[in-house]
Amino acid sequence: MGCEEQASINREVSKNLNITLEVIDVVKNPHHVHDYGLRVTPTILILQDDGVVERFEGVIHREELEAAIKEYL
How many CA atoms lie less than 13 Å away from 23 in the CB half-sphere? Predict the structure, then answer.
């Protein structure tokens, strides 16, 4: 349920900031669970230079996500 709610927020953020957000299905890509220490779905990671610079676990509101992403644009 949370992933569906987050998906609609991600679409808004993507449109508002004119960026592409990558969505990874951990069932199809289970190595990401280990690689990034994922414990909760949804989890949003902001990556920079191949490293995690921000982590959000659970549903995050549009305004908060946009503000976090803007810091790294």
Answer: 12
DSSP string, 7-70: HHHHHHHHHHHT-------TTT-THHHHHHT--SSSEEEEEETTEEEEEEES---HHHHHHHHH
Domain containing residue 15: CATH number: 3.40.30.10
CA nearest 7: which of 40, 41, 31? 41
Give the range of the structural domain holding residue 24, as residue numbers without chain letter.
Answer: 2-70
Q: What is the pLDDT of residues 4-27, one digit of tens each?
A: 999 999 999 999 999 999 999 989
Strands 51-57 and 43-48: antiparallel
What is the domain count for the chain? 1
